[in-house]
Design a protein that fits this description.
Chain lengths: 313, 295
């Protein structure tokens, strides 16, 4: 046992040598191909960020990097001055904030209910069913959502009204998207909170019972504080991803009528970059999205630290 | 006095149980009803469906919608493509993820820190859609090539970290014993580590398989000539928004409506996943909770 420990300590401080490389040749063979894969498919696109500072169109695309016209921050300025940029930002942030708020609250509520219910079999069935929509593709969800929520769809015929949830060109469409998203993911998202609840010391509950606390009081004073660190970490991650609203979901759930309130940054980047063949502009939008995301992540992390919460990084 | 108080608490607590029961039944209904409704419409006579779409048991049972979509929408080919990318993508993904995860679990590997950092960075920063699009379509010429479904998304770093932390939790003694017997690192991985990793590999396989089966954007962006089930369903939805007249001569002759066609394809695109996931539940719930992504 102690021999193993010392050998472990020794190998951590190893120096580079050809002998060591030969000794670890199998490890190298088992990892270097994936490193090459990583560089080609993840790091070369990062190098592509240089296009954000160039005028890159189909004409100039074939030129080598140094011969393309360099335009400084012109692409970024063009993006910010785009007539729909403001609306796109509003949609992206609105959908994110609404999605994080509703999604988190619902997932915690659902996890709390699962944690509390005492009918074990029933709990298991509910849980299994709650995962179902998570495993289904967005295309299928969109197909079902349109059947249910479109004008004259299932919900309309059921309630004998015209709700117009998928055909109102206003933030009503955000609400529809967020509700559909919550319906899809609430069961899955609850898993993490449920496991955090399972990790709470059961002695605390016993003590509270002895002190005469009822179930709601126990939830309020023990369960919720117990999962707070998990909530904070997930919120930090959520804020970091606030601008990364997926183009796939937006594209599939929307239609011509609600287009103005469906367009988000990633989709905007695609439309300007590929649709209008202005690769430099599209890249600039994508880069803006990515950098602001990282900045938000650090800010949220910092704030969590200042408030005395556990930090992510 | 104390007794009375605790009894009161108990009865209040039991009321909560029944409230929860009712809430859960409601949740189950709103989750399952749409799916049952879709299934019923797909199995119902399309003309009859036009009367009223709210039902969960077919009123006039028929297989004709399924026969129609396999005949007219080239669904057979799409089905084969979807199955192929799921099997190949998940198989290759699991093997490659497990191999990389093993190497990066080896603290004595000289490049461990460097490689791990390089992989983790890509979880937070990515080049974005346009550079990726140009790389795949222009530089690598992978457009409309089956490999575009497999290779660019071969390894998910999140999955790799899941497997790595599982391997780190295994007793080292087994590996040491094999090394003493003269096994090299590859043999140790293949013979010792892999068999022990079955639970986490089942989780990861499910994640890859679901991702592959459900993928739509890569077909839309890179391979419209290789339509998968998801893409075919998307095309049918798009056509429906162009408003095909449900009473047009051809439609009536074939006795289908766009809605029944769409619902039939929706079911074909959903069912395989739904058959698989309940059986893997214990694995993915474990995988979700064990794998704290922290590095």
């Amino acid at each position: 046992m102690s021999a193993g420990k010392t050998s472990k300590e020794k190998v951590i401080k190893q120096k580079f040598s050809m002998q060591l490389m030969w000794k670890q040749r199998y490890l190298l063979l088992m990892s270097v191909p994936f490193l090459i894969w990583l560089i080609v498919f993840k790091y070369i696109p990062l190098w592509g960020w240089t296009m954000a500072f160039q005028d890159v169109r189909p004409k100039t695309l074939a030129l080598p990097f140094w011969q393309r016209p360099f335009v400084g921050f012109e692409n970024f300025i063009k993006a910010f001055q785009d007539r729909i940029f403001g609306q796109v930002m509003l949609n992206t942030v609105g959908l994110s904030v609404l999605g994080i708020a509703v999604g988190t609250v619902m997932a915690i509520l659902f996890a709390l209910m699962l944690n509390e219910i005492r009918f074990v079999k029933f709990k298991k069935i509910t849980q299994t069913i709650s995962y179902l929509p998570h495993f289904v593709s967005w295309v299928v969800i969109a197909s079902i959502a349109k059947m249910v929520l479109n004008d004259g769809g299932m919900l309309d015929t059921l309630l004998h009204t015209k709700l117009g949830l998928m055909s109102t060109n206003s933030p009503v469409f955000w609400v529809s998207v967020v509700l559909i998203n919550t319906w899809k993911e609430v069961g899955w998202d609850a898993i993490v909170y449920l496991s955090a609840m399972a990790g709470i010391d059961s002695g605390l509950y016993e003590a509270a019972k002895v002190d005469g606390a009822n179930r709601l009081q126990r939830i309020w004073h023990i369960t919720l504080p117990g999962i707070k660190p998990t909530v904070v970490v997930l919120l930090i991650m959520g804020i970091g991803g606030a601008l990364n609203v997926g183009m796939e979901r937006q594209m599939l759930l929307s239609n011509g009528i609600v287009q103005d309130h469906a367009m988000v940054l990633s989709w905007f980047s695609y439309v300007r970059g590929i649709g209008n063949s202005n690769y430099g502009l599209g890249t600039a939008i994508g880069m803006f999205q990515s950098l602001v995301g990282i900045a938000l992540l650090f800010v949220a992390n910092k704030i969590a630290g200042l408030l005395g919460e556990s930090k992510l990084i | 006095m104390a007794n009375v108080k605790s009894n009161k608490i108990k009865s209040n607590d039991n009321i909560l149980d029944y409230i929860l029961l009712v809430v859960f039944i409601f949740l189950i209904i709103i989750t399952v009803y749409p799916f049952l409704n879709v299934l019923a419409i797909s199995l119902n006579d399309p003309i009859d469906t036009m009367r009223n779409i709210n039902f969960v048991i077919p009123r006039k049972f028929t297989w004709s919608n399924y026969a129609y979509v396999f005949r007219e929408n080239n669904l057979g080919q799409a089905f084969i493509l979807s199955v192929a990318r799921t099997l190949i993508g998940a198989g290759a993904g699991v093997i490659c993820t497990a191999m990389l995860a093993y190497v990066l679990s080896r603290k004595d590997f000289y490049f461990n820190k460097l490689f791990t950092t390089l992989f983790v960075i890509t979880m937070y920063v990515s080049g974005g859609l346009i550079p990726e699009y140009l790389l795949l379509m222009r530089d690598l010429k992978m457009g409309n090539n089956f490999l575009v479904y497999i290779i660019p998304g071969l390894i998910w770093v999140y999955n790799m970290i899941l497997v790595r932390s599982f391997i780190e939790g295994l007793p080292l003694a087994l590996q040491e014993a094999a090394r003493v017997d003269g096994a090299n690192d590859f043999i140790i991985w293949a013979r010792i580590v892999l068999p022990l990793c079955k639970p986490v590999l089942a989780t990861v396989a499910l994640f890859y398989a679901v991702g592959q089966w459900n993928a739509f954007m890569d077909t839309y962006l890179y391979a419209k000539e290789l339509p998968t089930l998801q893409y075919v369903l998307y095309e049918i939805m798009e056509k429906a928004t162009v408003k095909i007249d449900p009473h047009s001569a051809e439609q009536v002759k074939n006795s289908v409506s766009p809605l029944s066609v769409r619902m039939a394809v929706t079911i074909v695109a959903t069912v395989p996943i739904l058959i698989v996931y309940p059986f893997l539940q214990k694995y993915f719930v474990g995988g979700m909770t064990v794998g704290a992504v922290k590095d």
